[in-house]
User: What shape does this take?
Amino acid sequence: MRLRLRTPHTTALLTGLTALAAALAVPPATGTPAAQAATGVRGAASGDCATGQLCLWPAAGFGGERRTYELSDTDIESCIPLPKGGTAAALANRTGRPVTTYQSAECAETAEFDTYPGGGTWVPRSPYQVRAFKVWER
Assistant: This one.
């Protein structure tokens, strides 16, 4: 007696399940929040942020009134605090340069901070309230 493990029906079922799993697969997030953000998907809910800008939103998911900063009016490698009492919970870095965000308004490295690569990093939910940032030369 010969036992058939795969019938045409089970083969079709396995093929369909494999295709479904591949379509739904999301690569696991690893590393720092900056590395995780670099792999994020940008969609319509991400708001607008033009090339050359650093955009900050007060609410996660790119909510609230967006603040924008450009290289022409931002000192490179200087601590730029957000306006008094202002924080950001989401950001997009399209400056073309690395940007470090800080939990501390003085850019102190004793609190939380992360560096995000330039050129198209979208972070819908910062792991802390951003109170300051630095744009780096490269």
Observations:
- The longest helix spans residues 8-24.
- The mean pLDDT is 77.
